[in-house]
Amino acid sequence: MTRTDTNEANRSDEDARHLDTLDRDLGRFSTLERSTAYAGRSIIAPGIAFVFIVLAGLLAAVFFGQTGNGLIVVMAAAFGAYMAINIGANDVANNMGPAVGANALTMGGAITIAIVFESAGALIAGGDVVSTIAKGIVAPEAMASNATFMWAMMAALLSSALWVNLATWVGAPVSTTHSVVGGVMGAGIAAAGFAVVNWPTMGAIAASWVISPLLGGLIAAGFLWFIKARIIYRDDKIAAARVWVPVLVGIMGGVFSTYLALKGLKQLVNLSMGQALMIGALIGLLVWAIMIPVVRRQSKGLSNRNKSLKVLFGIPLIVSAALLSFAHGANDVANAVGPLAAIVHAAQSGSHEGAVGIPFWVMLIGAFGISFGLFLFGPKLIRMVGNQITKLNPMRAYCVALSAAMTVIVASWLGLPVSSTHIAVGGVFGVGFFREWDSARRMRKARQSIDKPEIAPDERRRRKLVRRSHFMTIIAAWIVTVPAAAILSAVIFLILNAVAG
């Protein structure tokens, strides 16, 4: 080899070393870039939420900044905005999770629909009047003074928001209604003793912890059994679907019409149970008649398999998710702004008894807070409800959505306080456990027909269709919601009262 060749070889080796170093540096830079982007995303969402909370406080300052209780109202508005964000992050997943899990909606589509319909429900049909003490849990006249009442409501608002935030962080969908109830109860006890609590009402709420998910699960499982028996297990699935899908969608139309008449639109028009059921029956018959030609047209050319049936349930599932969101916005916005409205009323009038109207600016805080919470933090719980408890398809998700509306109607008829969160998640559990039972039953029958031994216990555990870890986490969170929110609220009230005193 000549000297020139040697020099060129050395230069090539040196260039290769430089390139290796450059590649490593670029690799480090790329990793740093990805880490920075991730950190940026993790900081942006809380940053936007914080800005919204500050803006809510500034909005309150515009209306009450010059009054004697202005600082209390500003703090309450900030806490109300924080609570609304947490409701959006946690509670709305129950309406959108099944549709997303069934792939009837993308995550972006679900968030868009939920934001529009939650806001519309809150602003159009949101509660005009709420009790000064949420859900009649404590007697307002037992409070020693107006200031004590306002600090108690402040503690209830902050404690319920903190608890829902913690539940969202661990991935547990909990009842925001029960969180507020626990917060009000804890602050009431700290302010005026155990005698202040309406214990019969608390007993009914405790009973709803069991009744809500069981009723939701049984109704969802019942409809899934009907769909399997009448459509999925038939030799000609498409012919069966042409008969029964219009009936099922008609039932959904009737049930949701009744649900909206009783719950979602109750502030616009006051209807009795009989009137709401009559409206629901008429609309259900109309939807059934309309769906007959629609399903016949949709089913043309579909192959005779289960996958083809998913097409027929897609649109009804999207509509149900939108209607559930509207009703949720109309009802549960009071969880965020009810205590805030009570504080505003007490600050304005100097009295903490009687009913209070919710000012429009307070409703805006609730509506926009729920929307921000859903957009910024909602996907985590939507995935949990839609994908991680059990596998959902459009038929199963339809059963969950229908059971949510139907259970609320039955509970209203019976006069039972129920949680929409417990009902919806109970419906998901009901569908999953029914699938386990039905799968085991069919497998057992098949093995008996060919005279094969039973499946080993380890194999049976492996084939579970409901994730037991999520099941136990959610049940535990439900059980401790009211006492945890109550204890936290009592501590916060004592601190606020000591600082104010």
Automatic annotation (TrEMBL):
It is found in: Membrane. PANTHER family: PHOSPHATE TRANSPORTER. InterPro entries: Phos_transporter (IPR001204). The lineage of its organism: Bacteria, Pseudomonadati, Pseudomonadota, Alphaproteobacteria, Rhodobacterales. This is Phosphate transporter. It holds the Pfam family PHO4. GO terms for molecular function: phosphate transmembrane transporter activity. GO terms for cellular component: membrane. The chain crosses the membrane at residues 43-64, 70-89, 101-127, 147-168, 180-199, 205-227, 239-262, 268-290, 311-330, 358-377, 397-414, 420-437, 471-496. GO terms for biological process: phosphate ion transmembrane transport. The keyword Electron transport does not apply. It comes from Paracoccus tegillarcae. Belongs to the inorganic phosphate transporter (PiT) (TC 2.A.20) family. It is a multi-pass membrane protein. Keywords: Membrane, Phosphate transport, Transmembrane, Transmembrane helix, Transport.
